[in-house]
Protein 1
Amino acid sequence: MRERYFTPLDKVKSAVLLYKVENENQLSDLYAFIDRVVAKGIDVDCIMVGKSKDLQSAYPKTANFYRASTQEVKWNGVPKNEELLKLLQKNHDYLIDLSRLESQLCAYLATASLAKFKIGSIDIADSPFDFTIDVDGNVDLEFLQEQMFAYLQKIG
């Protein structure tokens, strides 16, 4: 059972990021985002969602990376990766969705996570998020990062 709870940004100990990998992605933006979160003393788990061919075999050691292949799901949309399912059970302080729920797998992962506070940039019916940042169609990760940190510091 998920325990909803807002932790002020300066007290957050752990976060899980959800990121959708595509051929044209610039991963340097993601790595810069992770570096900024880690610099605040937050342990980061990062779920990389994509086709198997687009997921790298190695990622930087700045965070714990997990691969979620869109081809490795059961008929009901649940990932076959047991390590990933265990990760979703962790009581992270934040889930930060950088995927914009662009696939059913991303939506499943965001919903299934037991993170206490879920942050996203897409406001849809039955959204899994506790807090939505309106980026007005801007897909720039740096813009989302600036908005998110500004609002979280004001709230907490």
Protein 2
Amino acid sequence: MGEIDLNRDLVCVLFPGIVNNDEKALQCLGGIKNISQVYSQPKKKRLGLSYQPENPYVKRIFADTQTAAGVLLKVRVKKKKVGSDVQREIISTSIFGRVKKIYRFESMCDFQYMPVHREGKGSVQCLLDKILPSGRDSIDVMSTPCPLLIVPNSFTRSDKPISYAYTDKRYGEKRTELDDEGTIHRRLRVERGRPLTRHEFNLIDDLPTEPHEYFLKQKAVRLSVYSALEEEFQIVKKLFEERPIWSQNQIRYQTKIKLSSVKVILPCLSIYMRNGPWRMMWIRFGYDPRKEPGARFYQTLDFRLRHQAGVHSMVMTRDRIMHYKKSDRVKHNPKQHLGEALLGDDINEGAVYFRPGMAPTQRQIYYQYCDIKLPEVEEMLAIEPPPGYLCHHKRGWLSPNTDEICRDHIFRYVKLTLLATQNTDLKFEQGESSEEGSNSDDDASTSSDGASNSNT
């Protein structure tokens, strides 16, 4: 036995392949710089791997970090050939250090798109150089025909394969009954076990004034296993007394209450607005923003970072941040929910507030107008609606083009901040592609529908 060194902490990366060249393996992992950034920010980043680092159309696979208890051994073996057999003799062993963290690549790797072309029965040619601009091309490249390569706009939502039953009977038949016309129909889908908390905005129907009985029972069940819930409930209730409309992120930022408790408390105190001027916001029971011009301060502004001046590539997307935080989109063991109150991710100030000198935490953020601390925006909000003005189904109490003007002011401050600081933590590698939605009302409403699933 050689020397032993257990005071040296090491990190293990299980490379999914046979490594014959260490330099190429490191390039597949993004290089030493990328590995160091992932190691220094374990809660924000995951280790990605691409078998073709130079190809931006390849979907990378990500490794999940896990705690481990192991050691790294160096074993020297002497081989001796005796006839047709090879005998091995261990000469020495030594321990290099202990391993506390290990990165495992367990996600799927079957969504790869290669820019190749085959002419007739000839060999396959790579067209990557013809598709990607080199930076030294002339304007004539724009008029030259280019090979067609269509990449899917989205990939699988799950990192790991799931079992799926290919059958028409996905839902069991619940009952057979007669409808109003006397015809027989079968209800194939089981009714929802919980009521919806999302409310469709309109100018006619009255808003609910009290919570559903289901959510009160859910709070009582949660309180039986987590006694601190009542104290957290009173904290959130006091916030709604001070301000009638809140976002979930703003509640978490102000109170530091974990997400598992916030999801139980909010439906007991407020309703969730799915769309409209206050989309993605929680409105206190008994308060109707359609009748209060002062509710314009709490309206939602959908801000999306633009591509101008290259600042778009300096800020993460929401999907990328969620991909870092959630290692896999699968259901956890119900027993683990009891300890969720002790876990959770903190909300940064940049996710709920905006002021000069502050950079957004992601490329798309839903702000409340009162949380935008810009003199130009505050001056616009200070203007009272004219007498007789009614709430609009899209603009609320604000005048036309208010959202476009506010976005222009915010982007101007963001551009100056990012280009002045050049924060390397917000930058991305060149070649990564991203999608950016438009700022139209229809697209914003569609985006809010998708984002609402993460808040309810």
Protein 3
Amino acid sequence: MTKKKKNIILIIPAFLLMGIAIGIETKTPIKQAVIGLIVGVVVYFFLKYRNKKINN
């Protein structure tokens, strides 16, 4: 079995890109990109905390 890679950091740019895509549709890409970035950071820290709690 290969060791599982920890690519949880990739969730931040994913939410950023989703925010930009929504912003293009609603004509406010900068606002939606910032919201996507904030949500991505929050989700990143939540998942990091949850994984640390599960592994201990």
